[in-house]
């Protein structure tokens, strides 16, 4: 393939002629990113800086100036939606010529095209099929059975997840580190991986991870094929480079190594997908991978106000692993980021719901408001509050809380315990988790029930004494029925929340989720724990199930104008005029699990997630945290997130007229300014703060002072040390009256009259 003559910039945009119209409106940095076509370029595109316009205009510029023909451009994105949007915009700029962009798509769609042309080099035919997750797990199950490996002890889904992880790291079976293979079936993971790949070749199939992995094998094993693609692709462009995994990185390096006309666009401060294999180091080492690379920073933000950007920039500055940039805007001023402390999670949902109602009455549409949570279990309190107040809402990126599969399963167990004749509940959970009661046996059982006009439970009791089903199935069904009888016997003597915990444990449901190494298993466990703790608000199981039925009945489609609820991960790329960021507490956000698993690296990713959350807001951002939260069924005293302290004081307002007040942001500076500049105390002029001061509190003494539900709370009070001793009668706003049984510093053990023994901080109680 012969090279096209390369036109000069002076020939394309002569001094006596105007620049092409598609360059109109670009700021200086954006235009640099568009016109820097030769050699490696890294575009650090901050949130809201016009990244998509730069991407599409750059491609259009290369085509319009004759540097390449459409089929000589490689442009890869992460989603089909992004690829379609890019193609649409390029067409709008240069017309039908854009139709020739054959190599514009996702990493995997482009890799699939390359593999289709070279399949025989990795032992496949060009007619290969791509199997889905269900087929992948079915194939692994067959392999486990052939190797006499217990699929209950070593679930197929777990090995599928490991294989996907290995492929994302670019490891073929022969290159898999021995330590990695040890993670499954007593050091047999590597051998099973090799068997799995061999079986795929026999079936002329590959899975999703193979698309890139086979490409890498082809390029490294066949230099002539790689040279062909070096000649084919004159310019390479990659979107969201901070989200690439190792396999994507290796694939790109191989394709770009000759011409090095590669432009990667991304934001190291928005790398938040480490849990699914993304490596922020890929973007951080771009200049080492491509010496002489030009780095262009897009820092002018067109989305958010000055205070929102300053708050986000001040927060992310605490990260060490970043290339560095500072967002700015011509939209000066605006509302400061509000930080509010509340009494507990229910008070938080009530506060936000009231503010949403107030904003709607003031003319703001519901769809302009979003609640961004760290974990999906946080959604329940908001969903129930919105249903109660008839505020329309929608959950983005997943089902509503009560519609989640694990929640429906738990409710089915409870319904069947409550009503043995609930055939729908029986059918849902008779083989969940897997008990060896297959679909054929269930269908036969339901047929017997209908024929005899009895419930499925009663039909099951009869069929276990016959030969209608296999001996193995009869045993599994008999065990299930005995479990149901035992749980029913506990219904009247055990609190219903504890009953659900017992059912989930004894049925094997929670164990199945713990063994599942998939990306959603931990989230599903957290949702179940949130469900258990929420049941405590109801006196009886009947009352709770009735509540659920009413919620599900009222929980209808909200239409177009609805409050958006989603996780912070799901919010990336979106923007809203008004954003609520609840649950900013240590252990919740940043996630303790993330820190435990990844240490400082995990903490920095959590901080990037906070940065993403704040920069979703165009006009108003409101952060909140609770002094108490019921986590996994236990009331705990919460500390505000360290991210609250890292917000710059100049762009944060730590109080609001709602009656909920917090002293978290920039606390060290706040404490000193309180003493040095008394007028600053006006920020803390609420009745709650007044009463706090009357009791001797100052910001030096209390990290957080909160007035919520008419209760004064402080998370620390040095003056109270030693104020209580064993035997004292005390009163707690949540747990009522009790007696102190042990004292350890400011931590007390109290035997409450009705709530049982609890550990509490002394500042949360008062003498009875």
Secondary structure elements and their pairing?
Layout: H1 9-12, H2 28-35, E1 41-45, H3 51-64, E2 73-77, H4 80-94, E3 104-106, H5 107-118, E4 129-130, H6 133-146, H7 156-168, H8 178-181, H9 189-202, E5 205-206, H10 208-221, H11 223-232, E6 235-238, H12 246-256, E7 262-266, H13 281-284, H14 286-289, E8 294-298, H15 306-316, E9 337-342, H16 345-361, E10 369-373, H17 379-389, E11 393-395, H18 405-418, H19 423-429, H20 439-452, H21 456-463, H22 471-490, H23 496-506, H24 509-515, H25 521-534, H26 541-554, E12 563-567, H27 568-571, E13 576-581, H28 592-598, H29 600-614, E14 617-626, E15 628-631, E16 634-637, H30 642-646, E17 652-653, H31 667-676, H32 687-694, E18 705-708, E19 711-714, E20 729-732, E21 736-744, E22 747-752, E23 756-761, E24 765-767
Parallel strand pairs: 1-7, 1-8, 2-3, 2-6, 4-5, 6-7, 9-14, 9-17, 10-12, 10-13, 11-12, 13-14
Antiparallel strand pairs: 15-16, 18-19, 20-21, 20-24, 21-22, 22-23
Helix pairs in contact: 2-3, 3-4, 5-10, 6-7, 6-9, 7-10, 10-11, 10-12, 15-29, 16-17, 18-19, 20-21, 21-22, 23-25, 28-29
């Amino acid at each position: 393939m012969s090279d096209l003559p390369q036109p000069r910039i002076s020939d394309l945009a002569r001094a006596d002629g105007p620049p092409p119209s598609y360059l109109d409106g670009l700021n200086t940095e954006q235009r640099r990113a568009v016109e820097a076509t030769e050699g490696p370029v890294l575009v650090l595109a901050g949130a809201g800086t016009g990244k998509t316009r730069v991407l599409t205009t750059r491609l259009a510029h290369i085509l319009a100036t004759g540097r390449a023909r459409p089929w000589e451009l490689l442009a890869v994105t992460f989603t089909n939606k992004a690829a379609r949007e890019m193609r649409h915009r390029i067409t709008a700029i240069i017309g039908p010529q854009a139709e020739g962009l054959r190599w514009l798509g996702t990493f995997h769609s482009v890799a699939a095209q390359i593999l289709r042309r070279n399949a025989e080099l990795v032992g496949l035919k060009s007619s290969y099929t791509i199997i889905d997750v269900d087929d992948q797990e079915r194939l692994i199950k067959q392999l486990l059975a052939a190797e006499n490996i217990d699929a209950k002890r070593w679930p197929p889904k777990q090995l599928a997840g490991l294989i996907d992880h290995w492929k994302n790291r670019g490891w073929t079976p022969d290159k898999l580190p021995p330590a990695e293979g040890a993670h499954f079936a007593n050091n047999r993971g590597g051998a099973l991986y090799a068997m799995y790949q061999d079986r795929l070749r026999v079936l002329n199939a590959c899975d999703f991870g193979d698309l890139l992995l086979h490409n890498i094998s082809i390029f490294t094993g066949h230099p002539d094929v790689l040279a062909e693609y070096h000649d084919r692709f004159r310019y390479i462009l990659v979107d969201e480079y901070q989200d690439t995994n190792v396999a994507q990185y290796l694939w790109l390096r191989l394709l770009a190594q000759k011409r090095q006309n590669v432009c990667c666009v991304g934001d190291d401060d928005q790398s938040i997908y480490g849990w699914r294999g993304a490596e922020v180091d890929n973007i951080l080492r771009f200049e080492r991978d491509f010496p002489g690379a030009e780095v262009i920073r897009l820092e002018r933000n067109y989305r958010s106000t000055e205070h929102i950007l300053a708050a986000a920039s001040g927060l992310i500055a605490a990260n060490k692993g970043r290339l560095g940039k500072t967002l700015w805007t011509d939209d000066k001023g605006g509302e400061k980021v509000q930080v509010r402390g509340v009494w507990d999670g229910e008070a938080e949902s009530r506060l936000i719901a009231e503010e949403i109602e107030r904003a709607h009455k003031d003319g703001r549409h519901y769809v302009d408001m979003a609640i961004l949570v760290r974990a999906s279990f946080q959604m329940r309190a908001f969903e129930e509050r919105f249903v109660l107040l008839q505020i329309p809402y929608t959950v983005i990126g997943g089902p509503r809380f009560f519609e989640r599969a694990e929640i429906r399963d738990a409710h089915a167990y409870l319904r069947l315990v409550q009503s043995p004749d609930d055939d729908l509940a029986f059918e849902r959970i008779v083989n969940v988790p897997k008990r060896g009661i297959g679909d054929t046996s269930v269908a036969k059982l339901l047929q017997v029930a209908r024929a005899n006009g009895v419930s499925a439970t009663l039909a099951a009791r009869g069929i276990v004494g016959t030969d209608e089903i296999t001996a193995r199935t009869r045993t599994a069904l008999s065990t299930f029925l005995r479990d149901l009888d035992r749980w029913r016997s506990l219904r009247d003597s055990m609190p219903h929340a504890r009953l659900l915990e017992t059912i989930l444990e004894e049925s094997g449901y929670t164990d199945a989720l713990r063994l599942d190494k998939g990306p959603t298993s931990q989230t599903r466990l957290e949702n179940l724990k949130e469900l258990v703790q929420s049941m405590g608000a109801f006196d009886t199981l009947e009352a709770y199930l009735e509540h659920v039925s009413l919620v599900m009945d009222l929980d209808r489609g909200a239409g177009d104008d609805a409050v958006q609820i989603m996780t912070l991960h799901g919010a990336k790329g979106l923007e809203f005029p008004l954003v609520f960021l609840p649950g900013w507490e240590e252990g919740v956000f940043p996630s303790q699990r993330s820190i435990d698993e990844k240490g400082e690296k995990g903490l920095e990713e959590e901080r990037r997630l906070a940065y993403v959350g704040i920069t979703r807001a165009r006009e108003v951002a409101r952060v909140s945290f609770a002094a108490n939260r019921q986590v996994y069924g236990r009331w705990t005293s919460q500390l505000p997130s360290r991210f609250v302290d890292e917000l710059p004081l100049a762009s944060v307002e730590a109080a609001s007229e709602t009656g909920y007040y917090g002293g978290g942001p920039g606390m060290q500076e706040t404490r000193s300014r309180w003493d040095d500049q008394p007028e600053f105390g006006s920020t803390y002029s609420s009745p709650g703060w007044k009463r706090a001061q009357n009791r001797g509190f100052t910001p030096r003494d209390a990290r957080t002072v909160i007035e919520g539900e008419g209760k004064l709370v402080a998370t620390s009070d040095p003056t109270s040390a030693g104020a209580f001793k064993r035997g004292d009668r005390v009163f707690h706003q949540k747990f009522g009256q009790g007696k102190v049984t042990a004292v350890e510093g400011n931590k007390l053990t109290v035997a409450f009259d009705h709530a049982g023994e609890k550990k509490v901080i002394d500042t949360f109680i008062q003498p009875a």
